[in-house]
Amino acid sequence: MYNLIKKIFFRFPPEKIHYQVMKGLQILHGVPMGKQILHSFCMPKKTGLERTLWGLTFKNPVGLAAGFDKDAKYTDELASLGFGFVEIGTVTPVAQPGNDQPRLFRLPTDKALINRMGFNNGGAVPAAKRLQKRKSDIIIGGNIGKNKITPNEEAISDYEKCFQALFDVVDYFVVNVSSPNTPNLRALQEKEPLKQLLHHLQMLNEQKAKPKPILLKIAPDLTDSQLDDIIEIVTETKLAGLVATNTTISREGLATPANEVEAIGAGGLSGLPVKEKATAVIRYISQKTKGSIPIIAVGGIFTAADAQEKLDAGASLVQVYTGFIYEGPTIAKKICDGLK
């Protein structure tokens, strides 16, 4: 059924149809029996999938990655689609429009997306206000970043503002320094700037009565020596874990004609082409640390087998994004029901 619907959806520009579909989901969720209908189609039937991590109990290990619900507008609706957790953002301290459109592109042959959204969002404070009003008890992650106009030397201040604004309304934080779509952002992945940023956030965290887990989202394009640095930093700053991985800037191995890919231009590539890279990063970190660093896996997860591969590589939880676009609203149910 969804394959037919997808053909219709794919006739429209990706960003436009995204908002139309989410608005439709919001309407359905709000009408009498709408929530029950969504539950009947999308909620996992399999039991015993709970995961406890950082003192949080996830109803199942399948979450929705950041980037889909940037402004925390649809968390209740997404909870009705069977996800165990939803990560909102990336949010920045001040609202920003992001990069010029078009900025989101499909590569159906590769089951992939290219995006250069540029952290388009309405700001951390409005997102926090929406989360205060949510009705579901789904676990919420807050993915935080810096504004485009903020120089890297002042980035710590931006992350602090987001942290403080969201602290009371999210269950865990993800520090995003790995998006390729904000100029110079990835430079913050370098050892010393990253240490300073994470030490500062952990200092703020320790001042709270109940500190929240802080994770770091990393790129799939890091070398082994860079991953060794990440492991050292996570250990030194006592981070709760990692999200592996963000989108890649690589275009290797795509079946989509090169001229079409070149015409799209810059942006992060997600979906099936990132699957092996993400798994390799997870396996490397897990083996190197003997599984001591919890990892949320994201990158090329479309099926239960894809999710199981990430879990077997050392991940504790998984997230979908591009897979949701290609597989439809029952993806969480299908993955959960197919897990070992």
From TrEMBL:
PROSITE patterns noted in UniProt: DHODEHASE_1, DHODEHASE_2
Catalytic EC class: oxidoreductase
Gene Ontology molecular-function annotations: dihydroorotate dehydrogenase (quinone) activity
GO cellular component entries: cytoplasm; plasma membrane
Enzymatic reactions: (S)-dihydroorotate + a quinone = orotate + a quinol
Localization in the cell: Cell membrane; Membrane
InterPro entries linked: Aldolase_TIM (IPR013785), DHO_dehydrogenase (IPR050074), Dihydroorotate_DH_1_2 (IPR012135), Dihydroorotate_DH_2 (IPR005719), Dihydroorotate_DH_cat (IPR005720), Dihydroorotate_DH_CS (IPR001295)
Active site (record annotation): S179 (nucleophile)
Enzyme Commission code: 1.3.5.2
Pathway, per record: Pyrimidine metabolism; UMP biosynthesis via de novo pathway; orotate from (S)-dihydroorotate (quinone route): step 1/1
Residue span, Dihydroorotate dehydrogenase catalytic domain: 49-340
Subunit structure: Monomer.
Stated name of the protein: Dihydroorotate dehydrogenase (quinone)
UniProt source species: Chitinophaga silvisoli
Gene: pyrD
